[in-house]
Structure formats: structure tokens, C-alpha cells
Amino acid sequence: MDIEVKKPVLRVFEFQPKPNNPKEAIEVFVQKFSDDEIFFSLTSLVLELTLDSETPFYKFLEQQPCRINIDKIERKRYLLSGTLLDFRLLYQELKEQKVAKALLTFLCENYPEFFKDLWPKRGIVPPIGINFRALSQSELNELELAVKLRHLYFLTEFLVAKGHLLFFYQAETKPLITGENPKTYCLANPFDKNLLTRVVSVFNDLEPLPEMYPQAVATSGFIYQPLIQYMPFLTRFLAQENHPLKEASFSLLEELKKIYPEPFGLIPVS
Description:
Oligomer: single chain
Shape: elongated
Number of helices: 13
Number of strands: 9
Helix content: 25-40%
């Protein structure tokens, strides 16, 4: 029996994409992925929006741009963040809005490699009085903690059983799945491993197949989300005594504490 059993893994990814610097990130990701949508999902922008009048922005909000994180900094000044894919989808859904037109104008001027294919054939007349700009790294560092947690994205990688992916969605976390390994099983405790061995042994020396124990097939991928979303994600897994991902979540929390002692150092561990 050729069975490889691994424990669930949640850990900080070795490379952390810097906000507003997709060119640097692509040099890393292009070697790992051929799918543009995966790359677009692992790189983020943090933009400041200033307006002469807030009326266009209110109309923009009426259509619920839910993929984008939005904070009002002061009157006529907002902070918007999201992945490259989020911003692409935002424009495609709200392209008739003045704010969306101004956004695409800015994105095509500053990040043409990632957005120029969205530029309409007849062009865009940039709306007057609606301006975007990318925050610098020093400005990002100086943001208040509460604002920073909502707009700075963090990249982790995972290896979990296919059946455990549901825990991510229940914690309002959407994993980006990049692969399955039908020859590897990812299980949380020794009993599962013993059960798997007994199930596969029935088939004597046959190659183990995912169909034999489908919920245990190892699935790998990434979680890329604002820091604040890791709080309910981790606390939910750590709060349950026998949660299958508790050990992996504790390991991830220990890594996050070293990088962001506040607020992750305040998460209780039972």
C-alpha cells in the first residue's frame, strides 16, 4: 500500500506580496502559476479616493461593491482595497458608474499590464473631480491599527483534507484551491489514519484511490485576505477542543504573533 498521510498545515507563505507593487509579485508567482486568475487573486491594491462631490460615490455604493473593502477617512476621502481580481470584477460590474470609469483610468495608467485588456474600444472620458492614487509603503505603515487590519492583505498556504475545506467557508474565508494530490491523504488524528489503513487494506495491493476515502484527499492552496479576517478564522478553530484544524491554526497564530504582535498576541488559546 502506497499511502502517504500528512497532518493539516496552515502557515505563512514564504513570500508576502507588497500592496500596490504587482510587478514585484509577478516575478515570484509567474514561476509557480500559469493561470492569470490565480495571480490576480494573490496581489492587492490599497487606493485613496478623493472627490469634489460625494454624490457619485453614493451612487457607486448603491450597487454594493461587496468585494472591495471601503473606509471613509474623512469627508470626500476614502480608502479602497482589494485584490487585482476584485478590482477587475468591480469595473466589469459597475462600468457605467463615474467612480468605476475613474478607477479604470487610474489602473490602466499605473498598472497597464493587468488592466489594459478592460479598456473599452471607444475609450473613456475621465470623470472630473474623482481621483485615485496608490498609498506608499510608508503611508501604509502609518495607518491606524484598526484601518490597517482592514486593508492590509496577508498570504498563507494550506494543506488540508478536502472535507475540511468547508471549515474555511463557514468562517467566511474563501480558499484559493491550487491542487489535489490523490496519492496523499491529510488527516487530523491517529484514529483517522488507522481507519484509512483498514479501508485501503481491503483492496490488498491495489493503488489507493481518492474514491476509497474521498474526504481525506490532500488539497493545497492559499488564503489571501485582510488581516482582520484572520481573527474570527483562527478563534473559531482554536475555540473547539477537538477541531481538526486546531493544531494547524495554533501554528499559524504563533507565526502571526511574531509579525503582528498586536492584535494576534491578544487571541486567547485554550
